[in-house]
Every structure is written in C-alpha cells, then in structure tokens.
Specification:
Elements (H helix, E strand, L loop, with lengths): L14 E3 L10 E2 L6 H7 L5 E8 L17 E11 L5 E7 L8 H11 L8 E8 L4 E7 L17 E7 L6 E6 L6 H10 L2 E5 L5 H5 L2 H5 L5 H14 L7 H10 L8 H18 L5 H4 L3 H15 L4 H9 L4 H14 L3
Parallel strand pairs: 1-2
Antiparallel strand pairs: 1-6, 3-4, 4-5, 6-7, 7-8, 8-9, 9-10
Length: about 350
Amino acid sequence: MAHELEFDKHGNAKMAYATHVPWHRLGVKMDGLQTAETMLAAAQADFDVALTRVAAVDDQGNIILNPDGTPVLIEDSRATVRVNPDGSFDGLATVGTRFTVEQNKECLMRALDVVAASSGTAVVDTVGVLHGGREFFACIDLGSLIIDPTGINDKIERYLLVRNGHDGKTPITFANTPIRAVCKNTVIMGVKSARKTFTAKHTRNSDKAVETARNVLNISVDWAEQFRASAMELLRVPVPAGSRQFDKVFDAVFPIASDATDRQRKYHDNIQMTVRGLYGTAKNAAGYGYNGWATYNAIAEYLDHFREGTVDERALSSMDTNSWVTKRKEIAQTAILSLI
C-alpha cells in the first residue's frame, strides 16, 4: 500500500491525527489538541524497542546450541525487537554493534525541545508507525498561519517532520518542511522538500548531536509565543455559518468572475454548499467552534476529499507543496488572518 502504515490485528491503522483528515482517511481522529503522550498512545506508537544479541536458529525455529549448552551467537550483529503491551515480541531488524535505540517517545520529545515547545505550545498534528514498526514519524505544526508581513525574518515552514527508525538504515531526522506527514510518501516528500534538515545516526553520540539540531535548523524559539498568541486570536475570531466572514474567506479561495456563465455559477454554489456542510461537522465547527480554525479545516477537507477528481489525483495534489490545492489552502490561511 502506498501509505505503508502498520495495521493492528483488528485492522486499525497505527496513526493518529489532530487536525484535518489525511488523504488515505486512515488513523484515529483526536478530539481536539492532545499531549504528545496521548497522540503516541492513540497511534500505538508508544512501544519500547529492545536491542538484543543475535543467535543462530535452525529451520524449525530452535536455537542452535554449542556442546556446553550456550547459544551460537552472531558476534558482529545485534537485533531490534519490539516489546508489545501483551508481552509478545516482534523482531524488527538486524543492526550493527554500534547501533543504539532511540525510543519513539524520546525522539518526539527531543523534537519538541528543539522548537522549545515541550510544554505543549506546538501542535503534534500527526503520529504514525510504518513498515511493521521499523519506522516512526510525527509532524509538529509550527503554525504557518503566522506570516511575517514585513518579510524580514527568515521564513519557518509550517511543519517540523520527525522521523525515527529501528531498522539500522533510517537515521533520526528533523526536517523543517511545508509537507504534512501522514504516510510513507509524505515523509519522503517532506524530507526532500525541507529547507533545512538535521540527521543523527543511531550511535552513542546521537544524544550530543541532537543538541545541535536547533542551530542546524535555525529555528528561533521566538516563534512559540507568537504562535500561541496568534492561534488563540484565530480561535477567538467568530465565523458564524452563513456569515459575511465565512463568505469572505470562501470567495477568496473560490473566486468567480463577474461574467461567469449560469453553469459556472451553479458549480460555484454547489462547492459553497458542500463546504458549508463540512463546516458544521464534528471534525470542524461542531468540534472546535465556529471560528477561523474550523473554517480552514472545512476548506482543506473539501480540497482533499470532496472536490472533483480521482482519489489518486486528490491525494497527489494534497501532498504536493506546489499544487494549486496547496496554494488554495495558503489563500484560505491569509483570508482567515485578515478577519483578525
């Protein structure tokens, strides 16, 4: 599957998301903003990984023993093993002897420390498990709704992508990117499109290396207070259903020419009815209130899932930072900010 998310034995994708629905429509929708620990638990990503020795096993699954009864060990290899809540184990990969385990929770908490947001200022927007537990990702929303009107400050992209691996191949990665990570493809796209990326190998020096991430990414801690203040303002902006404020945002995202034909006007009206319907749902205004934040989510949900086009085309446009869909979302953000 393109998303490569892991599924549990009940068929549930191991992913959680706090804002709009991802293109694949999988994962647990959280009820409002949650702590990192809650997001990890909802995505079933809070498991521990143990580093073990590697023993030789025969075709029947029996450990091969030496004459003295000790197991035959592969000295130049180690294995990563997932410890499941029910007490069972899953073998993940063989790794080198210098490999050290970075637990998923540790990796996410380090990322929050990088952006000075461990107290919850930033939004942990998505969390997911890939490749049967071998990879982990999360997406921290840094708030691209905050735009420097003077253009003086160095631009910070919307998301900090967090990536961790237990396969001996995937390094600890923090990337400042415009791509929201919701699957394997978006993780790859997020890293490739990142303006700045920090990586650290899974070695004994990884702790020291991660401490330099803030400097490498050039993320100023000043954004945190700005994001909190602006986000609170956005949530306070009343946007009643059917109001002039809602129409202003909608018309900015979906403009219509004065000389439009009757058919074009009818099509425009149908889009407006659909977006209005989405605005009142539990995922948007019914869950977050009739405000600017819910307005943005309703428009994004329409663009990602309800506009004309195939599922694949909508997914690709949603993931592409240069697509017209992404540009429409940016227009929505700007229009909503103008209401403040």
